[in-house]
From TrEMBL:
Family statement drawn from the similarity comment of this UniProt entry: Belongs to the TatA/E family.
Subcellular location: Cell inner membrane; Cell membrane
Gene (UniProt): tatA
Main location per the UniProt record: membrane
Official protein name in the record: Sec-independent protein translocase protein TatA
GO molecular function, one term: protein transmembrane transporter activity
Lineage: Bacteria, Pseudomonadati, Bacteroidota, Cytophagia, Cytophagales
Pfam families: TatA_B_E
The organism of origin for this protein: Echinicola vietnamensis (strain DSM 17526 / LMG 23754 / KMM 6221)
Protein function: Part of the twin-arginine translocation (Tat) system that transports large folded proteins containing a characteristic twin-arginine motif in their signal peptide across membranes. TatA could form the protein-conducting channel of the Tat system.
Length: 68
């Protein structure tokens, strides 16, 4: 399992400070919008990677049928 270098050194207190800074910068009303946008972006990325993976698997299956 790989992690980013800076994530493994973050403790509970640091997370609280980071969350407070985010709330101060963006405001409590804006955070749900940001989270929704981030969620949509992650979903689109996963869908795109799944589609590419399916295309590759179909190509491999098509190649094996041609050889038979």
């Amino acid at each position: 399992m790989t992690t980013l270098g800076f994530i493994q050194n973050i403790g509970g207190g640091s997370l609280v400070v980071i969350i407070l800074v985010v709330i101060l910068l963006f405001g409590a009303k804006r955070i749900p919008e940001l989270a929704r946008g981030l969620g949509r972006g992650i979903k689109e990325f996963k869908d795109a990677t799944k589609e590419i993976q399916d295309d590759i698997e179909d190509g491999i299956k098509g190649d094996s049928k041609k050889k038979s």
